[in-house]
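User: I'm putting together notes for a lab meeting next week and I want to include a structural view of one of the chains we've been expressing. I don't have a solved structure, so I'd like a prediction I can at least talk through. The sequence is below, exactly as it appears in our construct file.
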Amino acid sequence: MKILQVNKLYSPHIGGIERVIQDISEGLSDRYDIEVLVCQPKGRTADEVVNGIKVRRSGSIGTYFSMPVSIPFLFHFRKMARAADIVHVHLPFPLGDLACLLSGYKGKVVVSWHSDIVKQKKLMTFYRPVMNAFLKRADCIFVATEGHIKGSCYLKPYAEKCRIVPYGIDTGAYEKAEKYPFLTDKLSCRSSKKILFTGRLVYYKGIDVLIRAMNRTTDCELFIAGDGVLRDELLKEVKKAGTEERIHFMGVLSDRDLKAAFSDCDIFVLPSVASSEAFGIVQMEAMVYGKPVINTDLPTGVPYVSPDGYSGITVPPGDEEKLAEAIENLVHDNELREQYGKNAYSLVREKYEMNIVNDKISNIYEELAGKAGK
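Assistant: Thanks for the context. Below is the predicted structure for the 374-residue chain, given as structure tokens.
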């Protein structure tokens, strides 16, 4: 069976969706003939092979409102889809919707709905009719959690088409990774518990809330891995509060150091405050090492990944007082922290292991192909 995966970008461009597509493509490459069609952020069309996967990057004149502008993409989609049994489009990507609708493609269409469009609300006036037409055209819609359906402004009319397919994680790669005291060596006080956050330093991540919450806690230090537009502002806030010794900005870490940080932390925190955070794969990266997670009760998939009272604590988004209380509870209750960590470890292996997820995707592909053959 020939599968065409479609998205804005692909590895080595870093992003949660790009990572999911790479995991699917490489994980199922021994079962199907998989090709990937994406865009260049800017530049001419290029064909290459990435870890055995054929990738076409359609030329674009640049990226505007988070979307590459590419006329060649429309023609490449029409040509490549013609040979595909299933076209799998990852949204949000308005150009992908439009390309499929204009192509005349008659085969099976799978949509992976990663998140609603949150920031570009004015553009939704123009895009929503196209999006609705495409969702009606789709044969199946993948969502990572039930929260993606319940919390979406757009998916409810198409709920019957939705299938819950969580994101997967290669637990073996994390187990084999080198473990060393990456965070411990940076502690100002050796007895402090280590709190870890990793992600882009942007508005919806809620790092400002986390920093203010740390002012209400004791016996712990926060390690922030990542970079972004808010870095300078956050550094000023830490300096103003006089908490430089308890809050460490580490910048963007290598894969090796990041895995070591996950394995060396005591608690992982994802304090996101807006629905732009649709899942939070980083939660699974902490859970695979048996770490409890503090997340927020967003109307997305975030609280479904690490359930409140089982593998961690869920707090209201933007509530620094409740966030501080959750941190304090886990810092000072060794037994609770250990139990949540054990549950987190079990949950990842039972639900999010990459092979389990890929089998689920494969079963749906086969089901759709069977329907096509009738």
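A couple of points you could mention at the meeting. The chain has a mean pLDDT of 94. DSSP finds 14 helices and 16 strands in the chain.

User: Perfect, that's what I needed.
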